[in-house]
Amino acid sequence: xxxxxxxxxxxxxxxxxxxxxxxxxxxxxxxxxxxxxxxxxxxxxxxxxxxxxxxxxxxxxxxxxxxxxxxxxxxxxxxxxxxxxxxxxxxxxxxxxxxxxxxxxxxxxxxxxxxxxxxxxxxxxxxxxxxxxxxxxxxxxxxxxxxxxxxxxxxxxxxxxxxxxxxxxxxxxxxxxxxxxxxxxxxxxxxxxxxxxxxxxxxxxxxxxxxxxxxxxxxxxxxxxxxxxxxxxxxxxxxxxxxxxxxxxxxxxxxx
Length: 256
Hints:
three-stranded mixed sheet; alpha/beta; Rossmann fold; 2 domains; globular; three-stranded parallel sheet
């Protein structure tokens, strides 16, 4: 289902395997829906415009061989794109438009898809994903060719997010806010009620945790930024965050 953290998991995997969450090349496959878009992946052939530029995929891996390669929403790609992926998944290499062989053997290839997500989204809380795996796989097999699916090592189904998951996700997102404040030697002190408030406001049964980033930006980051610009918060302080009258309340930065 959408908004359950598939892309976020990929970033965490890059951090774990390569000690850098930026060791990732993300290919949004909705940009590769046309037949001619294959050349954007591997580079234009000799004599065509853009020949010297190389391909978006091949150049990224050629310059950084150790990384995670993410094909996001892979079901949206043109069928010809899968011919390129077959070579990567089978041989671990790819020939670009300039005839150079690019080695993919030190990359981890991940593909995300929302095919069959309606079955997962309709599950009850606590229900195992294996209960709907046959229905989901029927949809997947109806979209992808057998030779493509046969080259995938593992197909993982994600449960839809429940409200109980939101507290942990809020804490992860707040770590990023704290990184932004670290330049000013500032920290956040968020009470339990504020964490619960963010989790409630940022949760949507259909879109998962996707609205949470917008809530944190609108109700926490933007107000802090405005108060910093107005000189109301001092560098090096602790910003207390609570709930008052049904809204987040951002206190003064108390120097420690």
